[in-house]
Amino acid sequence: xxxxxxxxxxxESPGQSITISCTGTSSDLxxxxxxxxxxxHPGKAPKLIIYDVSHRPSGVPNRFSGSKSGDTASxxxxxxxxxxxxxxxxxxxxxxSTRVLFGGGTKLxxx
Amino acid sequence: xxxxxxxxxxxxxxxxxxxxxxxxGFAFSSFPMHWVRQAPGRGLEWVAIISYGESDLYYADSVKxxxxxxxxxxxxxxxxxxxxxxxxxxxxxxxxREGNFYDTxxxxxxxxxxxxxxxxxxxxxx
Lengths: 111, 126
What we know:
Shape of chain B: elongated
Shape of chain A: globular
Low-confidence stretches of chain A: none
Largest interface: A-B, 29 and 26 residues
Structural class of chain A: mainly beta
Radius of gyration of chain B: 15 Å
Mean pLDDT of chain B: 96
Oligomer: heterodimer
Strand content of chain B: over 45%
Helix content of chain A: under 10%
Helix content of chain B: under 10%
Number of strands of chain A: 9
């Protein structure tokens, strides 16, 4: 089963907003709500920033928000800070024996 | 919550290796656990899941038949037995917890993945 599709990179200036998309098929994103988003800085383990499409774990700023429409989930980061620079991954449960899919990752550059 | 992986090494193609993930700070036996890997400079790839009761096991097609996930709830430890290793298995291997929550209607839901270890590097090279 193919990975979820994310843009390879996105860049924006500090203080602005960006949205990263994550597109699947009806057998993964279409049928399941358990979409998560992760932030990863170089040399570090991924960190959960959004779960179940739009919920933020405690400690994650409300500048991070998630949504989903049909087969596409989205992560929006508003009021960009330099520390937001890094790689972002989406993931979702699937209906197949490959229980979990990841997106290919999106590199965010804060100019 | 703390997850600490160990067992990574440099091995030859065809070799075997066992990774461990020691858990602490939570009721390990109550949570499904996963292995996720990341090849150098590449994205995250899900590897395997084991249910909290060990009855349900699933694997990525890329490792099916070669890797075995297991757990010892008495030792709060997760394992990944890797056989017939290939150069393309070279990666940092993370263990990750599958969390849970209850929505506003009281229904249970799944959190992919609410805690991660720091990772252990496996290098397969001749």
